[in-house]
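Hi all, posting the design record for the shared folder.

TITLE: backbone redesign
STEP: 1 of 1
STRUCTURE INPUT:
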């Protein structure tokens, strides 16, 4: 089989690898049918990642089940979402919803980067899922695999960034400072869940247009709006933008940072102390949130397909993936409607 490998800045290539084999009755082999780069993949492809290449890339996809163990919990032919992090689903951490910190596998075990073991990437012809019975999430009937290719990470992460807060503080005002798909998904979800106001800040006019289609107000840039928002979401990976988000919060407000901060920087700690705000910068326990995120998508209240910038054939991956797209989806063998 082939696996797409990140070789150097702006370059990926197919590399041959042995076909994966089942190693236990809980395992499954899946074939991605709709895969997309995560926002952090874009940073990696631009040469900003912390890990030296080469390594298999890709950790967001909807896949078709090909082969299963006796206790895998899925059936060949099923369409499933493959979470980006490896988790057993049964240890104390997984049972507490901390699936990104599974104690049954090495720390930070994941697809798409050689961290916590060699698990390969989801831009591969075939993928082994070691705990299929607890990792894989069936795609609800009627949901488009292309629209939900990001449910492995970015879509479900966006759900986690806003849904619990809007459930606890209905009609909150939400600030989104972003550069990629996560921020746009947040706009869609926040409006669907009843946010009183959503302000999306991004210098890219095409991104702002999508945010406006979700009912968000938009701006190219803003100065700190003191005591303006109950919730701020930063998804830029830039500390200056995270600082801006923090300074826009009401007292006791919440800031969720979904940016991968590969570079150091200073935070406004005195301002944070004086306003009592909370900042969370968290590796996402995505498996815990995928079912609810898919349920929202199936409700018809949201439109994640608007974030998909282009749909390309699987064989175009080596040429097209390094190009700058908002959210391209690469497809093969999609089920016929």
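Okay, here is what came back for every position:
SEQUENCE:
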């Amino acid at each position: 089989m082939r696996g797409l490998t990140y070789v150097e800045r702006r370059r990926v290539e197919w590399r041959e690898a042995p076909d994966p084999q089942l190693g236990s009755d809980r395992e499954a082999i899946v074939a991605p049918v709709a895969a997309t780069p995560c926002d952090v993949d874009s940073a990696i492809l631009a040469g900003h990642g912390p890990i030296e290449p080469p390594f298999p890339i890709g950790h967001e996809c909807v896949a078709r089940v090909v082969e299963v163990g006796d206790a895998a919990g899925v059936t060949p032919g099923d369409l499933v979402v493959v979470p980006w992090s490896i988790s057993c689903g049964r240890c104390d951490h997984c049972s507490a919803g901390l699936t990104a910190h599974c104690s049954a596998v090495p720390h930070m075990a994941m697809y798409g980067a050689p961290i916590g073991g060699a698990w390969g990437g989801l831009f591969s012809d075939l993928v082994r899922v070691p705990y299929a019975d607890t990792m894989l999430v069936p795609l609800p009937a009627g949901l488009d695999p292309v629209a939900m290719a990001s449910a492995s990470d970015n879509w479900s992460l966006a759900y986690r960034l806003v849904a619990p807060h809007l459930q606890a503080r209905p009609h909150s005002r939400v600030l989104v400072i972003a550069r990629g798909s996560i921020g746009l998904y947040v706009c869609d979800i926040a409006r669907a869940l009843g946010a009183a106001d959503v302000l999306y800040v991004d210098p890219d006019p095409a991104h702002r247009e999508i945010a406006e289609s979700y009912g968000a107000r938009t701006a190219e840039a803003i100065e700190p709006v003191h005591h303006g928002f109950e919730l701020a979401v930063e998804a830029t990976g830039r500390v200056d933008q995270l600082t801006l988000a923090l300074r826009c919060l009401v007292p006791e407000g919440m800031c969720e940072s979904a940016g991968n901060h590969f570079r150091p920087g200073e935070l406004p700690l005195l301002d944070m102390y004086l306003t009592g705000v909370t900042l969370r910068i968290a590796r996402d326990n995505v498996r815990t949130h995928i079912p609810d995120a898919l349920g929202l998508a199936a409700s018809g209240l949201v439109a994640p397909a608007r974030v998909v910038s282009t749909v390309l054939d699987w064989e175009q991956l080596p040429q097209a993936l390094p190009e700058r797209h908002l959210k391209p989806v690469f497809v093969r063998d999609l089920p016929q409607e």
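COMMENT: The chain has two domains: 2-153+284-331, 154-281.
Let me know if anyone wants the other runs.
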